[in-house]
Amino acid sequence: MTASVNPSPFLGAAKGEMGDRVPVWFMRQAGRSLPEYRALREGTAMLDSCRQPEMVTEITLQPVRRHGVDAAIFYSDIMVPLMAIGIDLDIVSGVGPVVAHPIRTTRDVEALRPLTPDDVGYVTEAVRALVAELGETPLIGFTGAPFTLASYLVEGGPSKNYARTKALMVGQPELWDELCRRLAVISAAFLRVQVDAGARAVQLFDSWAGALSVSDYRRHVLPHSAAVLAELTDVPRIHFGVGTGELLADMASITDVIGVDWRIELAEASRRVGGTHPVQGNIDPALLGAPWEVLADRVRDVIRSGAAAPGHIVNLGHGVPPDTDPTVLTRIVELVHTEGAQLRAEALA
Ligand code: CP3
């Protein structure tokens, strides 16, 4: 062992320090693609499961044990902090988050109060238990970014074009800013609880920000995401959204690691942010069902392309689809671990 070997390849890569192992984890690794998850969740509603520390701990550990990934992601949901401050919502299987009373007026916005650690004691308890079990494997804490959370609150559920959200954003910019300021406070507090309990990195999901033009993103969204991430400078911060190719430079300006979906190559993503940031991504999740040799070559291409960036954390370009054969994920981890460092070295030569 040399002094430069980082005990966590994931944390090393997040700082742009690549050792002899390229790290890999998967968004939505804890969840429906695992039969052991489905068995444990049987009869328990999604949001109820998030409030049971023992269940949260077990579900978070399942993919770490099974696949040997380099990081655990906390089993929870972006809607949990909103539930915790009393918003009436549910997560409907096959649909997504559904909000009983969508937020559209000043009075609705004023009902959004700050989150305190006491609101989510079950999160503190679960993170502490997990950190004890995980040893050297880091736990990633996460939260939803103000825009993505606002989209669910304003639309009342999942949306294709975010018409009501955008109408509020451009039609009542002051109310929009107040809504997002409040959401930023809640999101930052939710991350702080996870980090204070032992999470060693955080990911801010602005999953649906790719629906915005660059100018609307800059004016109405970026400052609020920046406010969340500015509160968490003591751990590596990953910022991710789907379809954000045009937003990457702006997103990079407020974070440490940039998450990239499958639509643009990692080398191009790295170029767009000025070559300064480690990247995370970006295997197309829709290819997980392709013949193994074809998929394996795509994984190799992702690693070669990621070599353009100062650090690379292999991941999918979005979450694991529920119908994924989990043995494919295990094979990807094995491939990344056995071939990753060599592929990166060759790409750099
Ligand atoms: O493994 C992990 O990634 C950790 C757990 C996690 C969940 N949700 C658990 C979950 C994480 C990180 C999230 C984040 C999340 N939740 C995001 C951002 C990530 C992304 O996908 O872009 C978003 C947009 C949500 C909101 C949400 N929650 C959606 C769209 C859905 C899917 C609805 C469906 O059934 O198709 C959920 C439900 C959800 N969150 C499940 C899990 C394991 C499935 C619930 C079930 O098993 O019934």
Protein described:
This protein is an alpha/beta fold and 349 residues long. Helices cover 48% and strands 11% of the residues. It has helices spanning 9-14, 35-41, 46-49, 53-67, 80-84, 106-110, 121-134, 146-155, 163-171, 173-197, 214-230, 248-252, 266-272, 292-306, 326-348; strands at residues 72-73, 89-92, 96-99, 139-144, 201-205, 237-240, 257-259, 279-283, 312-316. The strands form two sheets. Strands 1-4-5-6-7-8-9 form a seven-stranded parallel β-sheet. α12 links the parallel β6 (237-240) and β7. α4 (53-67) packs parallel to α7, α7 (121-134) crosses α10 (173-197) and α8 (146-155) packs across α9. The radius of gyration is 19 Å and the shape is globular. It binds coproporphyrinogen III. The site of coproporphyrinogen III has 22 residues, from β3.
